[in-house]
Amino acid sequence: MNPEVRKKVILDMLNNKESITIQEVVKRCDVSEITIRRDFDELESKGLMIRTHGGAVKSKAGDQLFMYDVKINQNKTNKEAICEVASRFIKNDDIIFIDCGTTLIHLTKFIQKLDSVIVITNSLPVVSELINFSNIKLILIGGEAVNERKAIYGPFAERSISQYHANKAFIGADGVSMKKGLSSFDEKEGAITLRMAENADEVFLLCDSTKIERNSFVKFASLSAVDYLITDKDVNKKYISEYKAHNVKIITE
């Protein structure tokens, strides 16, 4: 089990219990105690857990890590601006994937005025925002509904996405870097995003500047999977030329 997956397992265990012991994680991950202690140290340094004698408890940040309702108001102004830019690439009669996430939801307000568009999504909030517009044909991917993320995941959802082809995919990620590519807090979420990217002609990655050159727990795609990276004006300027050198068209608001 690689380190990023292992740390995700630790957070999942904490998400299901108020506290865990080092020995529980050692048994679950089949690695040495010293390895788990290092993982605990790193997760605590990021504010995702609090170390205790022989174990750890959930921190406030860790408790909110997967919560859609918490993340929806973070960097909201930048997220809206990113989606306004992204909406300029959507044309009448396009077939588009819209990923779940608290950035992508803002895309809905900009596509409501189109004459005709087909939206394929696993996001329950996206469906809620668009369900009353007769000019928008909605396809909701089936599978396991996860309350904290307000989205559909799982093997059935992945297979369903693979049955469709879209002109454009609008996706998100918890981290993106030139060395590690696209990464997510959750492997199920990353798997859905990857399927959307694989089944679209063009891929638009929408993420605010806090996620640029940041690596999350599970890598799910290389940077080459992205055609356009749309971010906000606060992005470090040195990244713009570096990403362009990797054949990614980076666009700021």
As for the number of domains, it is 2
Amount of beta strand: 15-25%
Radius of gyration over C-alpha positions, nearest whole angstrom: 19 Å
**Separation of termini?**
39 Å
Topology:
Layout: H1 3-16, E1 19-21, H2 22-29, H3 33-45, E2 49-52, E3 55-58, H4 60-63, H5 68-71, H6 76-87, E4 95-98, H7 108-111, E5 117-121, H8 124-130, E6 136-140, E7 144-146, E8 151-153, H9 155-162, E9 166-171, E10 175-177, E11 181-184, H10 187-198, E12 200-206, E13 218-221, E14 228-231, H11 237-245, E15 249-252
Could you describe the 3D structure shown?
By secondary structure, this protein is an alpha/beta fold. It has two domains: 3-63, Arc Repressor Mutant, subunit A (Orthogonal Bundle), CATH 1.10.10; 69-252, Rossmann fold. Helix content is 38%, strand content 25%. It has helices at 3-16, 22-29, 33-45, 60-63, 68-71, 76-87, 108-111, 124-130, 155-162, 187-198, 237-245; strands at 19-21, 49-52, 55-58, 95-98, 117-121, 136-140, 144-146, 151-153, 166-171, 175-177, 181-184, 200-206, 218-221, 228-231, 249-252. Strands 6-5-4-9-12-14-15 form a seven-stranded parallel sheet, sandwiched between helices. It has a three-stranded antiparallel sheet with strand order 1-3-2. Helix 8 (124-130) links the parallel strand 5 and strand 6. The model has no long low-confidence stretch (mean pLDDT 88).
Name the descriptors.
25% strand; 2 domains; single chain; Arc Repressor Mutant, subunit A; globular; Rossmann fold; seven-stranded parallel beta sheet
